[in-house]
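Chapter review: from sequence to fold.
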Amino acid sequence: MTIFLRFFIIFLFTSFGYAQGNSENLLVKWNNASLDHSIRADAYRKYIYDDYIGNKTDSAYAMTLNLLDFTKRHKLSKQRADALILLSDIERMFGNNDKSTKCLNESLTLYKALNDKKGIAMAINGLGVSYRRIYKLDEAKEYFERSLEISEEVGDTLLISKALVNIGNIYLWRYKNDEALKYYEKSRVFAIASKDKFQEALITINVAAALSQKKEYELSKKEIKKALSIGEEIENYNILANAYRNISQIYYNKKMPDSLLVSANKMLNYAEKISLTKEIDGAYFFLFHAYKLKKDFDNTIKYYDLRKQQRTTIDDITSSNTLERIKIDKQRAQDSLVNVTHTLKSEMLYQKQKSNLIMGWGGSLSALSIFAFLIFRNTKRKQQKAERERQEQIEEKEKILKDLEISTIDAMVKGQEKERERLAADLHDSVGATLAAAKLQFDYLVKNQLNTEQSEELVKKTSTLLEEAYVEIRSMAHVKNSGVMAKNGLLPAVEKLSSNASGINGLTIEVQSFGLEQRLDNSLEISIFRIIQELVTNIIKHANATKGYVHLTNHDENLNIMIEDNGVGFDPKQINLKNDGMGINSIDRRVEHLEGTLTIESEKNKGTTVIIDIPL
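The token string follows.
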């Protein structure tokens, strides 16, 4: 395009009053059929990104589909690839990770054909996010590092920032908060340099999450205020919803229901505006717990049902139907009273006119008495009906609570029975074997009269075996005495288990959790707890470790359990599942029963890591 033509276009836009802002100019370019198709497509994509993706996501989705159709008709490979990146972001916001991944793969193919390194870096970074969302963290990290390498090669500060923050997210999910914060701070420098407010706000929210995970709540709040300020400045509801999610998490952890209600309602407001399903679900969760802490039964049930509806798309919820029926009956009662009153007024007028001609005031008073009695009887009947239905509603709610209590007790009984079986197996396999060896030593000593030196040696060995049996029983007692699952939940039970295990043979075990705010099904909690209990017992008995970690992460309907120690380690290939001495077979069967996966990573003298993924 010549300099003269550019000047003419700028002059034309100014003359017709379209120079009020960048957004208007972009829309004018898109609607200008005389411009090159690629210029129009680039302008429309930026217009969608700047004005719609953050606060009108449904509209952004429709507009992006329109843009894709335009690029297909005019065979614009580069612009089509860019539009697919935009569509992948929108699909991810709607919770459609598979569709987002499909868009990214298609865009990557186009960018490679064009040898567009910047585009390749964008697509690879997006694929890394897709892998992280299905909890394949190692694969995700490889994608992010590759994206960072290409971004640095082309010198794109914004892409460098995106890759760095995503690598930081991998460390955050692995509870390595200090490492995560290092990457976040590097990323923030590049985001500020690129003058991208959205990216800066996103990084700030992640910094707040890392600080909150470290329980540095006041510092976390300061970062959230920065993110809120940026979100309001650029009017991005996605940023605002996620910022309020973080502040809600802090109030939830600190059990501050009044503050939690305020932040959760704001989170819900912004999430609903752009259909952020995950944030809507999170807001319902926080509101449920806020009202539960305030002992507001009606609202507790309301948000429990809303969250159930959000997660299962089931519409026939008992409490909602009951409330709807009460509303209908109330309206009918009001309509009936209005009708009777109208009839009464008409009849009174008729009787008054008739009394002037025939019977006088006596007949009118009699009619009034009769209709007044009818009104009273009808009103009384409606009041009794409303009272009965209110009582039925109370009884229905009490039944729900009673059923929940019975389910809890059943789960506790089943768990206790399974634990008795497990304890019996441990006593037989571990302590029983040690005592059997001690008995053989003692019998040999009694039957064979040996010299003093040999006798002392046998006595010493027998004493050692008895001491080992005592230590094993004591360790088991500490480990097994770890909270009541049905009462306190999984996380408190695991924390108590780790506390009891710490101190045995110089061992210290730490528990780190993320996203495990709500209770799981009781039977599932018990099964998961027994798996963790078995793995902690293995650390005590076999690892000879001084440090252990239990990581629990609930993310996207998956529970990730990671148990680490710095002990002697072993060769996983040499494990015999049928007779491994470490209960691996039992753990494997439990995980398989829960439809999960078990991965063991270990090297001699380099510790052991056990990773378990369980779908919820």
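Two observations follow directly from the output. Strands lie at 508-514, 547-555, 558-565, 597-602, 608-615. The two ends are 58 Å apart (CA to CA).
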